[in-house]
Specification:
The protein is mainly α and 132 residues long. It is built from five helices and no strands.
């Protein structure tokens, strides 16, 4: 029975993790969608100002995510070594350099795909166990 409870908690945790990563990937897409605006000639300054405020908000969320996960990790040096790019992606720089740093956020999409793949594997494995 304890194994079932542990499996249910793991499954719930995995679903929450996927939901969080999905939201973060939505923010990545929103952030990356602003890149072309910096290269459009004659765009209104108020539009760019709004985009910069949105970028600051999104970057703040990425920074908070990095800080929370850093402090929750058991091995902080290992976490920093593997996820330093998340910190770079959280820097709000409205320019071509900022666009380059935003591209680091795309790595988050890879993480989501891997999580979804793992979740699908877990569902298949559970179905096979229930058949036996």
């Amino acid at each position: 029975m304890n194994k079932k409870i542990a499996k249910a908690e793991y499954s719930k945790s995995l679903k929450i993790h996927i939901a969080v990563e999905t939201v973060m990937c939505g923010l990545v897409v929103a952030s990356l969608a602003t890149i072309p605006l910096y290269f459009i000639e004659g765009i209104d300054e108020s539009v760019l100002h709004t985009v910069e405020i949105m970028e600051l908000f999104i970057s703040s969320i990425f920074l908070i995510e990095f800080i929370v996960r850093f402090f929750l990790s058991n091995d902080k040096s290992n976490y920093f070594r593997h996820y330093w790019w998340l910190l770079l992606a959280a820097i709000p720089i409205p320019s071509a350099l900022g666009s380059l740093l935003k591209s680091f956020r795309l790595l988050g999409l890879v993480k989501l795909v891997r999580l979804l793949d793992h979740y699908e594997y877990e569902k298949i494995y559970d179905n096979e166990l229930q058949k036996k």
